């Protein structure tokens, strides 16, 4: 019996490391004695539905290109925010997907993404089982939010955490230059989980104590207590730098600020403006210079300050996914298990994707102080190994030299 082929897609929000996982899948197929060609679906699952597929075995034909792909940020295959309907809602959609698999002689499908992508992987693996298909479906984790369950951390998070900590340190250097009392509020992505905002604590060192306050979605936010926290610090110091998650909410679960009441295709609120809302609140109550900074999407593609640890683990997870498919494993997500923090060591494994899809992994409440305005030592121990190492980025004309993504810019 001849070798089967594979297909891979990326979905959700971009990260610095998602292409490292893609490179790992490509390398895994190249090393495989079971699989032959690796195809890429452009713009997630939509590429399969729209017959927009490219041959990655031909495009990533040598080690140089593979290494370049590994160090290119964002998504070489492009993304989508498409919620796959249930089989009951649209049986023809599933039939179309598996007809495409059959036409390309697909033996395994790898979906690199976050929580919503794992939902797609779950639905496809369940459908495959229901029709007796031998196509293996495996999820490869990715999200700067670090909120996927049953894995120690997610690819992309370490690099984003490094970006956030570095940015906060640089903001501190800028702010401390002026002998003027001020409050700076930095809004950081994180709708349901505060992992990324927690990483701001890594900016603290022997001379810098900023951020002086950290607020996460996991602890109820009280505006009156927030104002009291700021006023108390201003009695002791000239400047206060504050890190807040975009998803901070009060004790009733109401977001402190939302741009609108609209939601995306998965029912997630479109959030922005928490930092601006707090800026206005402080300005109204304290006569002091106040500014808010929304970091927003900047850390998602900041490969120039990525974590070598993050890229290495992301690549290995992609490669491990292919190994699992070779063994006949399906309906799973590849995972990282931390064996030790010092020295740092992990093991690669997998878990049933049904236990991961549509679940949220929050920051443990015991890693947040009682006042809800800072993180505790276990968070530092958890975070520090994830940002270690600087990868060898190629430069051209003074700028990073990434993979050509013109195939994503065509109408």
From TrEMBL:
Record: residues binding diphosphate: 13
This protein's record includes keyword Kinase: yes
Domain Phosphofructokinase: 6-324
Record: residues binding substrate: 143-145, 189-191, 246
Compartments where found: Cytoplasm
Activity-regulation annotation: Non-allosteric.
Family: Belongs to the phosphofructokinase type A (PFKA) family. PPi-dependent PFK group II subfamily. Clade 'B2' sub-subfamily.
Protein name: Pyrophosphate--fructose 6-phosphate 1-phosphotransferase
Organism: Maccoyibacter intestinihominis
Gene assigned in the entry: pfp
